[in-house]
Amino acid sequence: AIQMTQSPSSLSASVGDRVTITCRASQGIKNDLGWYQQKPGKAPKLLIFGASTLQSGVPSRFSGSGSGTDFTLTISSLQPEDFATYYCLQDYNYPLTFGGGTKVEIK
Amino acid sequence: QLQLQESGPGLVKPSETLSLTCTVSGASISSSSYYWGWIRQPPEKGLEWIGTIFYSGTTHYNPSLKSRVTISVDTSKNQFSLKLNSMTAADTAVYYCARRRVRPEAFDYWGQGALVTVSS
Questions:
Q1: In the prediction, which pLDDT does A73 show?
Q2: How far is Cα A98 from Cα A86, in angstroms, rounded to an integer?
Q3: Which residues of chain B neighbour A98 with C-beta distances below 8 Å?
Q4: What angle do CA B35, A29, A66 make, to 5 degrees?
Q5: Chains A & B: contacts with CB separation below 8 Å
Q6: What is the pLDDT of residue B109?
Q7: Quick check: B49 and B37 in contact, CB under 8 A?
Protein backbone atom coordinates (compact mmCIF):
# COMPACT_ATOMS: atom_id res chain seq x y z
CA ALA A 1 0.00 0.00 0.00
CA ILE A 2 1.14 3.55 -0.72
CA GLN A 3 2.01 5.43 2.47
CA MET A 4 1.14 9.10 2.72
CA THR A 5 3.23 11.15 5.12
CA GLN A 6 1.90 14.55 6.07
CA SER A 7 3.85 17.29 7.77
CA PRO A 8 3.65 18.97 10.10
CA SER A 9 1.20 17.04 12.24
CA SER A 10 0.11 20.34 13.78
CA LEU A 11 0.88 24.01 13.47
CA SER A 12 -0.10 27.26 15.12
CA ALA A 13 -0.78 30.27 12.96
CA SER A 14 -2.46 33.65 13.07
CA VAL A 15 -5.25 35.05 10.95
CA GLY A 16 -3.70 36.39 7.77
CA ASP A 17 -0.72 34.03 7.82
CA ARG A 18 0.33 31.99 4.82
CA VAL A 19 0.18 28.30 5.71
CA THR A 20 1.77 25.39 3.88
CA ILE A 21 1.10 21.71 4.50
CA THR A 22 2.99 18.97 2.72
CA CYS A 23 2.18 15.40 1.83
CA ARG A 24 4.71 12.87 0.57
CA ALA A 25 3.81 9.60 -1.10
CA SER A 26 5.94 6.49 -0.68
CA GLN A 27 5.86 6.02 -4.45
CA GLY A 28 4.85 8.12 -7.44
CA ILE A 29 1.15 8.82 -7.72
CA LYS A 30 1.17 11.22 -10.69
CA ASN A 31 -1.28 13.97 -9.65
CA ASP A 32 -3.87 11.64 -8.12
CA LEU A 33 -4.14 13.44 -4.79
CA GLY A 34 -6.91 15.22 -2.95
CA TRP A 35 -7.00 17.52 0.05
CA TYR A 36 -9.80 17.48 2.61
CA GLN A 37 -10.69 19.82 5.46
CA GLN A 38 -12.34 18.50 8.61
CA LYS A 39 -13.77 20.56 11.43
CA PRO A 40 -14.54 19.05 14.84
CA GLY A 41 -17.62 16.86 14.79
CA LYS A 42 -18.09 17.26 11.07
CA ALA A 43 -17.47 15.15 7.98
CA PRO A 44 -14.44 15.91 5.84
CA LYS A 45 -14.95 18.37 2.99
CA LEU A 46 -13.24 18.13 -0.37
CA LEU A 47 -11.03 21.14 -1.08
CA ILE A 48 -8.77 20.11 -3.96
CA PHE A 49 -8.62 17.15 -6.34
CA GLY A 50 -6.12 16.17 -8.98
CA ALA A 51 -3.45 17.79 -6.79
CA SER A 52 -4.27 21.32 -7.90
CA THR A 53 -7.92 21.70 -9.00
CA LEU A 54 -10.11 23.64 -6.63
CA GLN A 55 -13.44 22.01 -5.85
CA SER A 56 -16.45 24.19 -6.72
CA GLY A 57 -17.30 26.63 -3.95
CA VAL A 58 -13.93 26.46 -2.21
CA PRO A 59 -12.31 29.87 -1.62
CA SER A 60 -9.42 30.77 -3.90
CA ARG A 61 -7.07 31.29 -0.94
CA PHE A 62 -6.68 27.50 -1.00
CA SER A 63 -4.32 26.08 -3.58
CA GLY A 64 -2.58 22.80 -4.23
CA SER A 65 0.53 21.84 -6.12
CA GLY A 66 2.84 18.95 -6.77
CA SER A 67 3.05 15.71 -8.68
CA GLY A 68 4.81 12.39 -8.33
CA THR A 69 5.62 12.04 -4.65
CA ASP A 70 5.57 15.55 -3.17
CA PHE A 71 2.49 17.70 -2.75
CA THR A 72 1.59 20.95 -1.05
CA LEU A 73 -1.59 22.57 0.22
CA THR A 74 -1.29 26.32 0.69
CA ILE A 75 -3.66 28.70 2.41
CA SER A 76 -2.59 32.14 1.23
CA SER A 77 -4.20 34.15 4.02
CA LEU A 78 -5.55 32.13 6.92
CA GLN A 79 -9.11 33.00 7.93
CA PRO A 80 -10.86 32.19 11.24
CA GLU A 81 -12.98 29.52 9.54
CA ASP A 82 -9.86 27.73 8.28
CA PHE A 83 -8.82 26.42 11.68
CA ALA A 84 -9.37 22.71 11.16
CA THR A 85 -7.57 19.47 10.41
CA TYR A 86 -6.42 18.82 6.85
CA TYR A 87 -5.90 15.41 5.23
CA CYS A 88 -4.42 14.33 1.94
CA LEU A 89 -5.72 11.23 0.15
CA GLN A 90 -4.01 9.37 -2.66
CA ASP A 91 -6.42 8.33 -5.42
CA TYR A 92 -3.75 6.60 -7.55
CA ASN A 93 -4.51 3.04 -6.64
CA TYR A 94 -6.18 0.75 -4.12
CA PRO A 95 -6.06 0.67 -1.20
CA LEU A 96 -6.81 4.37 -0.97
CA THR A 97 -4.69 5.88 1.78
CA PHE A 98 -4.95 9.07 3.78
CA GLY A 99 -2.18 11.11 5.31
CA GLY A 100 -2.11 11.34 9.08
CA GLY A 101 -3.59 14.83 9.15
CA THR A 102 -2.39 18.34 9.99
CA LYS A 103 -4.19 20.26 12.71
CA VAL A 104 -4.13 24.01 12.14
CA GLU A 105 -4.58 25.85 15.41
CA ILE A 106 -4.88 29.47 16.42
CA LYS A 107 -1.68 31.08 17.64
CA GLN B 1 -29.47 18.45 -3.41
CA LEU B 2 -27.45 15.32 -2.81
CA GLN B 3 -27.58 13.91 0.69
CA LEU B 4 -26.12 10.78 2.22
CA GLN B 5 -27.38 9.48 5.55
CA GLU B 6 -25.86 6.68 7.59
CA SER B 7 -28.13 4.53 9.75
CA GLY B 8 -27.53 1.65 12.08
CA PRO B 9 -26.88 0.75 15.69
CA GLY B 10 -24.68 2.99 17.77
CA LEU B 11 -23.58 0.15 20.04
CA VAL B 12 -22.26 -3.24 19.02
CA LYS B 13 -21.03 -6.03 21.29
CA PRO B 14 -17.57 -7.51 20.83
CA SER B 15 -17.45 -10.36 18.29
CA GLU B 16 -20.75 -9.27 16.74
CA THR B 17 -21.35 -7.88 13.25
CA LEU B 18 -21.81 -4.21 12.48
CA SER B 19 -24.42 -3.38 9.85
CA LEU B 20 -24.70 0.16 8.53
CA THR B 21 -26.75 1.51 5.65
CA CYS B 22 -26.21 4.68 3.67
CA THR B 23 -29.33 6.13 2.04
CA VAL B 24 -28.66 8.39 -0.92
CA SER B 25 -31.15 11.10 -1.85
CA GLY B 26 -30.93 13.64 -4.63
CA ALA B 27 -28.99 11.40 -7.00
CA SER B 28 -29.17 7.91 -8.42
CA ILE B 29 -26.84 5.34 -6.97
CA SER B 30 -26.97 3.62 -10.38
CA SER B 31 -24.96 6.34 -12.11
CA SER B 32 -21.84 5.10 -13.91
CA SER B 33 -20.05 8.31 -12.89
CA TYR B 34 -19.69 7.43 -9.22
CA TYR B 35 -18.51 4.87 -6.73
CA TRP B 36 -19.89 4.75 -3.20
CA GLY B 37 -17.63 4.27 -0.23
CA TRP B 38 -17.14 3.87 3.49
CA ILE B 39 -14.49 5.63 5.55
CA ARG B 40 -14.03 5.48 9.31
CA GLN B 41 -12.33 7.56 11.99
CA PRO B 42 -11.52 6.26 15.48
CA PRO B 43 -11.89 8.84 18.25
CA GLU B 44 -9.18 11.51 18.06
CA LYS B 45 -7.48 9.70 15.16
CA GLY B 46 -7.19 9.99 11.39
CA LEU B 47 -9.27 8.75 8.50
CA GLU B 48 -9.19 5.17 7.20
CA TRP B 49 -10.69 4.05 3.90
CA ILE B 50 -12.75 0.86 4.35
CA GLY B 51 -13.98 0.11 0.86
CA THR B 52 -15.85 1.22 -2.24
CA ILE B 53 -18.59 -0.21 -4.44
CA PHE B 54 -19.84 0.52 -7.95
CA TYR B 55 -23.56 0.22 -8.75
CA SER B 56 -22.82 -2.97 -10.68
CA GLY B 57 -21.57 -4.54 -7.46
CA THR B 58 -17.84 -4.28 -8.15
CA THR B 59 -16.03 -3.76 -4.85
CA HIS B 60 -12.63 -2.73 -3.57
CA TYR B 61 -11.68 -3.29 0.06
CA ASN B 62 -8.90 -2.20 2.37
CA PRO B 63 -6.66 -5.29 2.76
CA SER B 64 -6.43 -4.60 6.48
CA LEU B 65 -10.18 -5.24 6.78
CA LYS B 66 -10.86 -7.40 3.76
CA SER B 67 -11.43 -10.64 5.64
CA ARG B 68 -14.14 -9.02 7.78
CA VAL B 69 -15.89 -6.54 5.50
CA THR B 70 -18.68 -6.74 2.95
CA ILE B 71 -20.12 -3.78 1.06
CA SER B 72 -23.28 -4.23 -0.98
CA VAL B 73 -25.61 -2.05 -2.99
CA ASP B 74 -29.40 -2.00 -3.35
CA THR B 75 -30.23 0.08 -6.38
CA SER B 76 -33.98 -0.34 -5.87
CA LYS B 77 -33.71 1.47 -2.54
CA ASN B 78 -30.88 3.80 -3.59
CA GLN B 79 -28.82 2.49 -0.68
CA PHE B 80 -25.52 0.83 -0.04
CA SER B 81 -24.47 -1.04 3.05
CA LEU B 82 -21.49 -2.02 5.16
CA LYS B 83 -21.10 -5.19 7.18
CA LEU B 84 -18.06 -5.62 9.42
CA ASN B 85 -17.87 -8.81 11.42
CA SER B 86 -15.93 -9.89 14.50
CA MET B 87 -16.04 -6.41 15.93
CA THR B 88 -13.56 -5.40 18.65
CA ALA B 89 -12.95 -2.23 20.62
CA ALA B 90 -10.46 -1.19 17.93
CA ASP B 91 -13.40 -0.85 15.53
CA THR B 92 -14.98 1.89 17.65
CA ALA B 93 -15.15 4.85 15.27
CA VAL B 94 -17.28 7.31 13.39
CA TYR B 95 -18.28 5.63 10.13
CA TYR B 96 -18.84 7.86 7.12
CA CYS B 97 -20.44 7.00 3.80
CA ALA B 98 -19.39 9.09 0.82
CA ARG B 99 -19.76 9.44 -2.92
CA ARG B 100 -16.61 9.03 -4.99
CA ARG B 101 -16.37 10.42 -8.49
CA VAL B 102 -14.99 8.06 -11.10
CA ARG B 103 -13.19 10.85 -12.97
CA PRO B 104 -11.67 12.99 -11.64
CA GLU B 105 -11.50 10.82 -8.57
CA ALA B 106 -12.44 12.33 -5.22
CA PHE B 107 -14.90 11.88 -2.40
CA ASP B 108 -17.10 14.88 -3.14
CA TYR B 109 -20.10 14.29 -0.89
CA TRP B 110 -20.10 12.80 2.60
CA GLY B 111 -22.69 11.71 5.11
CA GLN B 112 -22.65 13.28 8.55
CA GLY B 113 -21.15 10.16 10.10
CA ALA B 114 -22.39 7.55 12.55
CA LEU B 115 -20.60 6.85 15.82
CA VAL B 116 -20.32 3.12 16.49
CA THR B 117 -19.07 1.98 19.88
CA VAL B 118 -18.00 -1.59 20.53
CA SER B 119 -18.68 -2.54 24.12
CA SER B 120 -20.32 -5.30 26.10
A1: 98
A2: 10
A3: 46-49
A4: 110
A5: 60
A6: 98
A7: yes
User: Which residues does B contribute to its contact with A (CB < 8 Å)?
Assistant: 39, 46-49, 52, 60-64, 96, 98, 101, 104-108, 110-113
Determine whether the interchain pair B113/A43 forms a contact, defined as Cβ–Cβ distance below 8 Å. Answer: yes
Q: Is the pLDDT of residue B86 over 90?
A: yes
Q: What is the pLDDT of residue B48?
A: 98
- B46, B106, B110: residue with CB nearest A34: B106
Task: Collect all residues of chain A within an 8 Å Cβ-Cβ radius of residue B46.
Answer: 87, 98-101
Residue A74 contacts residue A20 (beta carbons within 8 Å): yes
Distance CA A68, CA A99 (A): 15
Q: Judge contact between A95 and A4, C-beta under 8 A.
A: no
- pLDDT at B5 > cutoff 90: yes
Find residue B39's DSSP bridge partners. B49, B96
Give per-residue pLDDT as tens, A38-91: 999 999 999 999 999 999 999 999 999 999 999 999 999 999 999 999 999 999
For residue A106, pLDDT beyond 90: no
